[in-house]
Amino acid sequence: MTQSRRMLVLRAVVEDYIRSQEPVGSTTLTKDHDLGVSSATVRNDMAALEDEGYLIQPHTSAGRIPTEKGYRYFVDRLATVVPMSEAQRRGINSFLSGSVNLQDTLQRAARLLAQITGQVAVVAAPSLAKSTLRHIEIVPVSVNTLLAVVITDTGRVAQHILNVSELPDTTVLSHLVNEINAQCASVSLTRTADYVRQMSSRKEYRPISRLAETLAQAFDGMADERASELYMAGTSRLAHQRAVADLAPLFDALEEQVVLMKLMSTLSETTQSDGVGVAIGSETHTPGLLHASVVTSGYGRTSATADDVTKGETAEEQGRETSNHTTAAQDSTEPIAFVGSIGPTHMDYAATMAAVRAVARYLTAFVAHDENQNNS
């Protein structure tokens, strides 16, 4: 019972510190929280929590603040992410629905998430390595040049120049393009490359076998693309929240986009609560983020629909879904990219996790809706 109450005291300290960013004392806790014990008992609990590494006392006479271990316990005990209100969800939908394409949507999503959380927002575009082919067009642009325009299932458009000694016969080229679109729709770019390479050896495509091989190499190159574009917003807000001495390493960390991509991508694929992953301080393994926390969620290739975002709460949001069901859903899908928020370790974890999850669900629905529209 003592241990259980002690953890209630820890939760109260974390909540109060997140709200006030001032060290929390036992008198304040007793007054603001119904802990059912005296201020002296709470003081003893706080001392024990300090001994156990959950709290630290910055000054001799001051109250205590949570350590990284304290925040981790708190985040792990956030059993479910509280859903955003209907008005907030409508606000997200209204702001993002005005976008004209995937790139515009991702830029808007980053700005919106930064606005909601008051922190740095990072949204990754889907990499071609995780994409499948939706459609390809090949158009001549000069006497020795063709342009291959590849559209993927995520809405990304990749362009590749194909150099030729002379322009191919339009009928044969048209047959090649039509067969690729018929046989390789929803197929990975690597497998598409293999199929095109096989086509190049067939009799009917012998006149353009060299072009087909060049196209296969282009697909291979696209499939090898691991890094993807990052959309970032909210960095200017940092200057108002942190001491100047803290900013340099943090900005350095934000500049290291490859490191950031790896951290947030890995975190989004090993999510914790309700599909949202959290790394606190040293858990990020990034020196510049030692005093920061990262909250992220993958998006794309899940069962979410636009209705989950724009209409009422899903069963999961209302807490009716079991953890086994959620795990199974996560196992059967793989995110194509991530959305995340970076802020101080004293961030409002519950609100940030809810916002990240809501934006991720919108992006999942957007990609799925876009794909369905183009397939219909």
How would you describe this structure in keywords?
376 residues, alpha+beta, five-stranded antiparallel β-sheet, 10 strands
Structural commentary:
The chain is elongated, with a radius of gyration of 26 Å. Helices cover 51% and strands 15% of the residues. Mean pLDDT is 82; it is low at 302-332. It is built from 15 helices and 10 strands. It has 376 residues and is of the alpha+beta class. The strands form 3 sheets. It has a 5-stranded antiparallel sheet, with helices on both faces. Strands 4-5-6 form a 3-stranded antiparallel sheet, sandwiched between helices. The protein has helices at 2-20, 26-32, 39-51, 68-76, 86-96, 102-117, 170-184, 189-200, 209-223, 235-241, 244-255, 257-269, 306-310, 323-331, 349-375; strands at 55-56, 65-66, 120-124, 133-142, 145-152, 157-163, 230-233, 277-280, 292-299, 337-344. Helix 2 packs across helix 3 and helix 8 runs antiparallel to helix 9. 40% of the residues are buried.
Mind sketching the topology for me?
Elements: H1 2-20, H2 26-32, H3 39-51, E1 55-56, E2 65-66, H4 68-76, H5 86-96, H6 102-117, E3 120-124, E4 133-142, E5 145-152, E6 157-163, H7 170-184, H8 189-200, H9 209-223, E7 230-233, H10 235-241, H11 244-255, H12 257-269, E8 277-280, E9 292-299, H13 306-310, H14 323-331, E10 337-344, H15 349-375
Antiparallel strand pairs: 1-2, 3-7, 3-10, 4-5, 5-6, 8-9, 9-10
